């Protein structure tokens, strides 16, 4: 296994090196440094927030996030990794494990943050820095910090995952499936939202701060809030429905998976089953050349079909779609890129230069407006919700079957989300096989 990871990682670094070399050349730069960042304290307190290193730094360095580290990338040279390891008896310094990624770098251990300056390439070279702390870079004499042209180009390429990155997201999905399945069991066991979250974390072997985003773990009508992370500590009188939108990380790369369950058979369970079918059907249309905005609009048509077939809204699917009634029930985007970040970059970016597609006038929450190409990874996550504020806007509308809607309100809503990779001639669903292998 380790050999395979080593091979995948060294190919990954080779591809990153190629990308960076081209980008640095076109920006007339000789070298680029990436600072991992610094920890932040709570206000009026000396306790620090969980630290996540600079995103671009993490694309190179598979180690645990460590502050005050520096990556020096110079075409034609092995990348230098300045690794911060203070002599400290209060805190255990981050170790450099004997791991598959270490051979790809010339590693220099530094003991104090200011020693990082010693790793800067010699004077006379044109250097740029990527860093959150611009003033720190300026104080080192690096005046070009976060140049837009470099950022746009790097972000653009992040949409195309290397084989190594694909494999990490596949692994993250395996962990997610295991954790989601533990959460499902806990729901059927009658656990509270907080108990379910704790069982999810245990099955994922994650601390809560390792989750890529605060998990939504909600029962009943609370499922109508799109991102709800209050984690009720007392059981509801009756557990009708359960919606869980929760991710995992594996070596900095994420899975983002959502499932909805009904406690008993009935119309809500039937709606979930239908949504699952619509999701798998729409995923089967994905391939290179398809525009994701069209997929999002196609999902509105499918949800119009569900609203019509179940009699939630009166009229044909076409009428419901034309009257835009689906926006009341499906008010969010169909999906987003995934990667090092949960909402990975460049979903609105139309080229390497950073041309911005802008928000879609009718679908402003759609985070992915790109033509699909091999190597892209994203979510597909349709929803059908009964949201009080949006239903209130339709109050008195005779096209809405209020009797049925009132019957469904206590269930909150449905969302199902899988993670997809676009291949040369179609797609790979990473989430379904991860659940299937659990048996
Ligand atoms: Mn998502």
Q: Would you mind describing this structure in some detail?
A:
With 439 residues, this protein is of the alpha+beta class. It has 2 domains: 2-158, Creatine Amidinohydrolase, Chain A, domain 1, CATH 3.40.350; 163-436, Creatine Amidinohydrolase. Helix content is 34%, strand content 15%. It contains 13 helices and 14 strands. It has helices at residues 2-26, 55-60, 134-139, 148-158, 163-188, 193-204, 267-283, 292-309, 317-322, 326-329, 388-392, 402-408, 431-436; strands at residues 31-35, 70-73, 80-84, 106-110, 127-130, 144-145, 216-219, 241-250, 253-262, 377-380, 383-385, 413-415, 418-422, 427-429. Strand 5, helix 3 (134-139) and strand 6 form a beta-alpha-beta unit. Helix 1 packs antiparallel against helix 4 (148-158), helix 5 runs antiparallel to helix 6 and helix 7 packs antiparallel against helix 8 (292-309). The radius of gyration is 24 Å and the shape is globular. The mean pLDDT is 96. Bound molecules: manganese (II) ion. The site of manganese (II) ion has 5 residues, from loops.
CATH topology of the largest domain: Creatine Amidinohydrolase
Bound ligands, each once: manganese (II) ion
Arithmetic mean of pLDDT: 96
**Percent range of helical residues:** 25-40%
Order of helices and strands: HEHEEEEHEHHHEEEHHHHEEHHEEEH
Question: Strand arrangement, largest sheet?
Answer: 4-3-2-1-5-6
- CATH architectural name of the largest domain: Alpha-Beta Complex
Structural class label: alpha+beta
Choose one word for the global shape: globular
Number of E strands: 14
State the fourth-level CATH superfamily of the largest domain: Creatinase/methionine aminopeptidase superfamily
Strand residues, percent: 15-25%
Helix tally equals 13
